[in-house]
Design goal:
The chain has 117 residues and is α+β, with helices and mostly antiparallel strands. The protein has helices spanning 2-21, 38-46, 59-63, and strands spanning 67-69, 74-77, 80-83, 101-103. The radius of gyration is 22 Å and the shape is elongated.
Length: 117
């Protein structure tokens, strides 16, 4: 009987330990978002998401964005015309927590899995 009681208490202790460990990660608003695709970063800079002019996108800047149109377009880049920026990786999009609309046609994305941010 003592072993059963000890076992129940151990299970209860483990449950309480995991329950107490569940915490939301606090994100600092001035912390830059990790954006691995330079084409994605350049497009965000072109759209004016970087409001403080440091050529980085931080969490506070991303939080206010609710509409992003990243659809590839013909752009005039000096003497060379560039067909879109060819975004291949949208790592960092999860920081745009208030995003209602995302358009990303005509890029080189292989996969974009919507998540419940």
């Amino acid at each position: 009987m003592n072993k059963l009681v000890a076992f129940v208490f151990q299970i209860l202790a483990v449950f309480l330990l995991f329950y107490q460990c569940e915490k939301k990660v606090q994100i600092l608003p001035d912390l830059p978002i990790i954006i691995v695709d330079n084409a994605f970063l350049l497009e965000l800079l072109d759209l004016g998401v970087d409001t403080d002019g440091d050529s980085l996108i931080n969490y506070a800047e991303a939080e206010v964005v609710n509409n992003l149109d990243l659809s590839g377009q013909w752009r005039d880049s000096g003497e060379v015309r560039v067909d879109s920026w060819w975004i291949e990786n949208m790592t960092g999009i999860e920081a745009f927590v208030n995003l209602d609309t995302l358009k990303c046609a005509w890029n080189d994305l292989r996969e974009l899995i919507p998540k419940d941010f």
